[in-house]
Design goal:
The structure is a homodimer. In chain A, helix 2 packs across helix 8 and helix 4 runs parallel beside helix 5. Chain A is globular and about 55 Å long. By secondary structure, the first copy, chain A, is of the alpha/beta class. The first copy, chain A, contains 8 helices and 5 strands; from the N terminus they run αβαβααβαβααβα. The longest helix of chain A is centred in the middle third of the chain and has 20 residues. The first copy, chain A, has a 5-stranded parallel sheet, with helices on both faces. The interface between A and B is medium-sized, with 22 and 22 residues.
């Protein structure tokens, strides 16, 4: 084991868990960020080190130069993947909530991580339900033609074929979704012995 | 205090320090990354949460699409600044080692952080000394015309006018430099009471 690995081990012992990426994908309004935040709350209560990487935040900061064409979405997800990797390498549990509509882009983000350290969670919610919720008023604007290239309306969403977890967020409540993700984290032995968020 | 601030406080208590950015600027070969790594080693021994953000690493990952024109350097530092902010907001001490030759770009990175949470360290080393060391063989290649827009040779370096710390890395040894940076961190009350890296 080289010195970088040794240091990572030391940090994992200090933190009580290893660094890894939980990647929430799904339509706008499917509940990705809400779930990521609920999970962060839960993990932090157990003194785990985590960070929520929200797509809207990234577009205001790191990716503020990018639009929504397929090429720009690819670059947006490329950067998000690199960020997630860096956070994970720093020992954190990354909760990345991004529409990330293209399979190829998500696969690239996954490929940056060691096997087992990237957990894809598909927040599945029918378009009609997302559109009815329309928390940010974006669907209405997309239907009115005020926003172009809007995922689900005028831009495609490619659902994951084999995510680690698929949640029907229209049927399961937030508490149940949180438990399901936690269960997958435990299956992946993310936490040190005795640590039970 | 809103809930985001409360959570940050809780994390700071957990970590024993607040999140902030130490930004090392200087010519290639001035010792920025060496110093950042020595500091990380020291901080980690005291169970602090820190991360080294190295310019060369960023150019292989997050910024792999960028070259070395003034515009691309600006974008490189813009992204590095956004990354540093995100790490700091996640509670980490960020040790950013980047040539970052332009004052305006460094000022933008600083402006992303609250006052007192961005410490600029100028690793000052005469060009002749950096060129003589030439650890990566880049100066030789730049002089041979194999690398264009190389800072100090064919591209300008704008030294900081009022950095929090200026280190003569040609004169001070690594241990002394490390102590000087730590002293500035203590002056800025980065650590909780009793924590003395």
């Amino acid at each position: 084991m080289d010195s970088a690995n040794l240091k990572l081990r030391r940090r994992e012992e200090l933190n009580g868990h290893r660094g890894m990426v939980v990647w929430f994908t799904g339509l706008s309004g499917a509940g990705k960020t809400t779930l990521a935040r609920a999970l962060a709350e839960r993990l932090e209560r157990a003194a785990c080190h985590c960070v929520v990487m929200d797509g809207d935040d990234l577009r205001r900061g790191l990716c503020s130069d990018l639009g929504f064409s397929p090429q720009e979405r690819a670059e947006n997800i490329r950067r998000a993947g690199e960020m997630a990797r860096m956070f994970a390498e720093a020992g954190m549990i990354v909760l990345a909530a991004l529409i990330s509509p293209y399979r190829a882009d998500r696969a690239r983000a996954r490929a940056l991580m060691p096997a087992g350290d990237f957990i894809e969670v598909h927040c599945h919610c029918p378009l009609e339900v997302c559109e009815q919720r329309d928390v940010k008023g974006l669907y209405r604007r997309a239907r009115a033609g005020e926003i172009s290239e809007f995922t689900g309306i005028s831009s495609p969403y490619e659902a994951p074929e084999a995510p680690e977890l698929r949640l029907d967020t229209a049927k399961l409540d937030l508490a149940a979704c949180t438990e399901r993700v936690l269960a997958v984290l435990h299956e992946h032995a993310v936490f040190s012995r005795g640590r039970r968020p």
